[in-house]
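Format notes (please read before filing issues)

Several people have asked whether sequences and structure tokens are stored in separate files. They are not. Every record keeps both together, in the order shown below: the sequence lines, then the token lines. Line labels are part of the format and must not be stripped during preprocessing.
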Amino acid sequence: MLHLRASSLADTHAIAAALAALSRAGDLIVLAGEMGAGKTAFAKGFGAALGVTEPITSPTFTLVHSYQAGKLTLHHADIYRLSTHNEVADLALAELLEYDGIVLIEWGDVVAGSLGDHLLVQLDAVDDDEEARVVTLSGVGPGWAARWQRVEVATGSFAC
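Then the structure lines:
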């Protein structure tokens, strides 16, 4: 587990960009945090770093937005409105990962136990600072364990 501090929106984007640089096709990134914690802001920074040129918006009502990022496709999901594991399974996230895709799931922590290999990004607001966030990273499974040292180096300037 790694604890980081983002003092601004630009820092949140920079952390997301550092993780995007370490990501590859087949990766699953789970974004967790309260409403307004910065999950969509993180997704915007992540997508921009991958090369997404169109605006990244929250897929709360459409559930999944897909964006081309060079040879990769970024699938941005929001499962806030889903209430069962079956509804999440109906999104076919595993299939999205198979085709040169990276999947970011907002509110995915509620089903993270059934997702297999993933990176959990927990964003928490800091009470005394409107823009600051504590970002906690946890790698789950061998895919992220093999890259963990690179994650630490890439995000080290934000360590708290």
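For reference, the curators noted about this record: The first helix runs from residue 9 to 22. The chain is about 30% helix and 30% strand.
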